[in-house]
Structure to design on (495 residues):
């Protein structure tokens, strides 16, 4: 254990339900020892009041960051706020919170938030990056993805995407939503905001266990937890396909009929109907084409390596890749079969920032192979796998 | 669980995750990384040496030298001194002529 306090980020487009989600999470007694930072645009801190009026007791400490997006002007404020929070915690003027939850503005890029705590000499020893949770509006989210790069980036860097407003009649079907989100971030864990059991996972302070969607193998969890976790991912997360090259999801979709089959290894993600040669509904067709047309800037690639990987070669290659293209690399996750190690090593990061690797206690069910996902903006993704394979084969010259 | 996670205070030493806490193994890993790095920058006519197991000494074709504490700094220095971009995704272009 690092002893550092995790800072979790709740992001999501304007009006996508971030504050509602935050309130729901904070009502859970288990999260009452959370400090909350809210980043807002505009002079009046509406969200702050929403949270404040609902919370009772002194367990919750809300600091409002005003003046603009977290990604630019407020980084300094965020440093100051976090330092102050930590000082007050040390002085005993606020309860000893176990985690910080930051709600960003609807237009913020969450990545710099995580950079900030890594970059600041004082904060880096006190806080550590936690999970990034993105809310996604089941009614308007798909259109927002098509229109707003901010929305795409928020989805791209998220560990978890939670669907909001799924109870509204106008909402898209689960398969449409997971298809649209999966095209941008195939590694994200997808869930419904109404499922409070899943909410607990968002702020799991042992977040590093969640580096890979299918964490059912985690031996730290009891069987019940593991089963719940597995079922959660199985039902709510088409992206568990990372552990199974093909995975059928959404069978629990109450609307029914459209399963999704996702293929990795550089294959495009196809709807079940598409794969089976069936016809898609007009709305589904619209979704697929709309997203494909409007999101050429963000793309992902998934790579599977059967043979054990030499860690030094992989690590040098990864630093080179991030050196050359870190600004474009929105997210990467790797689950590595390392030569000389019995169990897998998981590693992930955002842009140039690499989280410390995690030595997992065992393998998940399925083939024992390395799996990597890269999500980038404006990068020729088809070059990544040949480059990695060339490097791992011992051709280091560039 | 490997105890190495405590080594990552600077956020960059994750490179050594696959090594063990055994100092000899750590040195071997570092030497292996150094060999790979040298091969990477060879075409840039940049030389790299280990400096007391803690830093890298990067020397350009004209003899200009920089000391770097991690690989990210090393790549930047090698580009500056070798006056040549280092992009692993462009390596295929080199071979394709």
């Amino acid at each position: 254990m690092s002893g550092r306090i995790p800072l979790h980020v709740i992001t999501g487009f304007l009006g996508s339900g971030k504050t509602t989600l935050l309130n729901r999470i904070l009502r859970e007694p288990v999260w009452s020892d959370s400090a909350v930072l809210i980043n807002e645009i505009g002079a009046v801190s509406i969200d702050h009041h929403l949270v404040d009026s609902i919370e009772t007791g002194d367990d919750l400490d809300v600091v409002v960051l005003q003046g603009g997006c977290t990604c630019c002007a407020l980084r300094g404020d965020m440093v100051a706020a976090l330092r102050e929070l930590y000082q007050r915690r040390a002085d005993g003027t606020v309860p000893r919170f176990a985690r910080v939850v930051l709600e960003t503005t609807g237009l913020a890029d969450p990545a710099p938030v995580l950079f900030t705590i890594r970059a600041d000499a004082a904060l880096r020893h006190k806080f550590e990056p936690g999970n990034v949770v993105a809310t996604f509006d089941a009614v308007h989210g798909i259109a927002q993805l098509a229109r707003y790069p901010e929305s795409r980036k928020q989805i791209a860097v998220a560990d978890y995407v939670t669907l909001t407003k799924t109870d509204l009649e106008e909402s898209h079907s689960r398969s449409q939503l997971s298809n649209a989100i999966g095209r941008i971030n195939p590694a994200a864990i997808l869930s419904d905001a109404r499922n409070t059991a899943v909410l607990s996972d968002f702020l799991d302070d042992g977040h590093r266990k969640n580096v890979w969607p299918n964490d059912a193998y985690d031996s730290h969890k009891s069987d019940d937890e593991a089963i719940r976790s597995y079922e959660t991912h199985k039902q709510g997360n088409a992206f568990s396909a990372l552990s199974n090259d093909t995975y059928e999801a959404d069978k629990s979709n109450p609307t029914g009929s459209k399963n999704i089959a996702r293929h990795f290894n550089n294959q495009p993600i196809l709807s079940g109907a598409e794969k089976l040669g069936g016809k898609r509904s007009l709305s589904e067709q619209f979704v697929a084409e709309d997203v494909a047309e409007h999101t050429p800037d963000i793309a992902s690639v998934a790579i599977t390596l059967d043979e054990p990987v030499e860690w030094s070669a992989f690590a040098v290659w990864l630093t080179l890749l991030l050196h050359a293209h870190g600004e474009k690399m929105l997210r990467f996750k790797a689950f590595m079969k390392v030569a000389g190690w019995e169990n897998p090593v998981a590693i992930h990061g955002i842009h140039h920032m690499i989280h410390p690797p995690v030595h997992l206690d065992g393998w998940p069910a399925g083939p024992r192979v390395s799996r990597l996902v890269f999500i980038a903006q404006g990068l020729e993704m088809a070059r990544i796998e040949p480059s990695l394979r060339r490097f791992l084969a011992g051709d280091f010259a560039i | 669980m490997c105890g190495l996670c405590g080594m990552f205070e600077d956020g960059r030493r994750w490179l050594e995750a696959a090594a063990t806490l055994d100092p000899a193994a750590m040195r071997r890993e570092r030497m292996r990384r150094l060999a790979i790095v040298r091969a990477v920058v060879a075409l840039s006519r940049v030389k790299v040496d280990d400096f007391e197991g803690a830093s890298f000494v990067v020397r350009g074709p004209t003899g200009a030298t920089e000391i770097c504490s991690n690989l990210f700094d090393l790549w930047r220095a090698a580009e500056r001194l070798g006056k040549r971009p280092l992009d692993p995704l462009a390596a295929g272009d080199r071979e394709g002529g």
